[in-house]
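Q: What would this chain look like folded?
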Amino acid sequence: MSNISIIGTGNMARTIGARAMAGGNTVEIMGRDQSKAAGLAKALGDGATTGEWGTTPAGDLVIVALLHNGVVPAVAHYGDALAGKVIVDISNPFNSTFDGLAHREETSIAQEVAKVAPAGASVVKAFNTVFRHVLEKGRPDVFIAGDDAQAKARVEAFIESLGLRPLDVGGLKMAHWLEGAGVVTVGLANHGVGNVDFALSITELPV
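A: My prediction, written as structure tokens:
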């Protein structure tokens, strides 16, 4: 099992934290508002701890569960405290109309995180194509992207501990297209599917 630190105290932090605890992982919550972090750790139950914002996370995997415009500044703020860690970006940088990405270039939040992350840290994109309540109640596939094979293997093991199937889409540059897939899920929710009770998945033909 994995030692997880979650930067953030919102709904995705709560959902991933709960599944992580249920999967036998240790969980540390870190938030700018220490009282919110402590409250979430208490809600997650015995074994969840609270870390101080900006200090070295206890976990080897650091999940940044913040709105997209807060992810890069948070990683930059932590700086060398993240050296040697696997940083997991779960954000979706939607534009104001939710039909495109907020950044116009062929980049991603994960790629921008990699630019400010300290030496020895690895960045993996994951979880961004799954609606929160589907992650909470379902068994969705979780797509991941990253350049470090060992870091991806650690994230894959964590995802498997949640009872979910990790699927590797390639290097970190593929995070841009995973963010695009996040836009597709919103389009499906608003049009073809008509609700948010689904997740993108892979269907394999029988051999």
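Strands lie at 3-7, 26-31, 49-52, 61-64, 86-89, 122-126, 141-146, 165-168.
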